[in-house]
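Two folds, back to back.
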Amino acid sequence: MRSSNPVFSRRGFSRGAGYADFNAPPQAGGPAAAYAGANPYAGTNPYATETPQYAPQYTPQTRPMTMDDVVTRTGLTLGTVIAGATVGWLFLTGHLAFALGAGLAATVLGFVQSFKRKPVPALILGYAALEGVFLGALSGFINDLPKMNGAPMQAVLGTMAVFVAMLVAYKTRIVRVTERFTRFVMIAALGFVLLSLVNLLFMVFGGGDGLGFRSGGLGIVFGIVGVVLGALFLAMDFKQVEDGVAYGAPREESWLAAFGLTTTLVWIYWEMLRLISILRD
């Protein structure tokens, strides 16, 4: 199953009937055939030595990735985000230019890591630190606005609630990540991003609230859609982590899992903060 997250999109993960069947030959007319035009692995294990033409050249690992590895790396990455946010909140709330610079730098590091075939922990932690500085400074600025005191903490609690709810829904199979599910989320996310960019352009060149996607009743609906999309991204990330563990991905892939989960949680927090700000205004 391909992920919306660029961190996972080139890893070659795909499931057949729900089991780790990468070492088996692709079945005619099965899921492997559906991915044959887009997935370079086409039903084979990207980590198996039988496919040297396509398999990423990883340094031999002492053992494959485990769920504990993913939890540990994700905790470290999110901890770095929190540390950066603390610095931004305490020292850069009144210096938004520096915060925006940190946000742009984080975006650059995120794209660099996304297009690398192997995880670079320094890049991932650097992204987490700079993203944290940006979010912390901006959150502190919003918190000081009239009627906005406590909004960032509400956004944090809301993000945690979305994470727990989606994890439970995924583990109980209330939400099932299928090929159709992935296509729907990708199309919806593309439309969401394009509308956001158009609204931003109207705000920059036309002034005011642009097309109104970030204020009033329409802004509330748009904010809810953003949070829901983030929750659906989480389900797709959970699927990628589950598949990576089941297929014996190299241990270093846990850094990519941590990176993917962190970017999704940042998305949810930011959309939640904007939604709460609109509701309070």
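---
second:
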Amino acid sequence: MKKISALLYDVYAAPNPDQEREQLYYPRAVTYGAKMNDDELKNYLEQNTRVNSSQFVGMVEALVQEIPHQLLQNKSVHIRGMGTFFLKVGVRPRKDEHGHSYIPKFTDPHDITARDLRVEGISFRADPSWNRHVMRSKQLFERCDTRHQVPISKDKLLRYIDKQVKEQGFVTIRDVQYDLGTTNYHARKLLEELTVGPQPKLYRVRVGHSYVYKRYGQ
């Protein structure tokens, strides 16, 4: 791997609901949303390796079709040097007496039955050798200036939420973070503020290991 420019990072405040606790901070890599798409990767490989574009396209299409099929056959799929694909299974949401979705919690493992489960997606665990490839890099780090708590008016936020709810039925912290250009912590704070008060606009539903936010009356 060729050495390139310094790795960008920024420092973020960890969510701190208890104001009496000391505020903690953590570093995170910054990409400004930049990513290499499949066409760019295909062109790069064709110019720098022995893989031609038709081979790349054929292999990607085959993997896209075959990996999910194998996972649904009770298998994990390991690609040597890269990592392992496996199914992510979780608890199916239920609805309460008001029609709101929630994820049930179990205190007895025998209470979880097949009808309580659903496939939540595909997970990937990187191969240790692949992780070591980047962990042992000697690139320098450089702190960059990123947008933090960008002012977002309530009207703008509600219009955006209505759009997301209309399109996908809910809105997530990540949606607000990336589409409105703010931090994860600030996006979470904006959504949580809409779940409280005498006339809350949103209610929160746990899905897997995260939450989605839904509009009351929609």
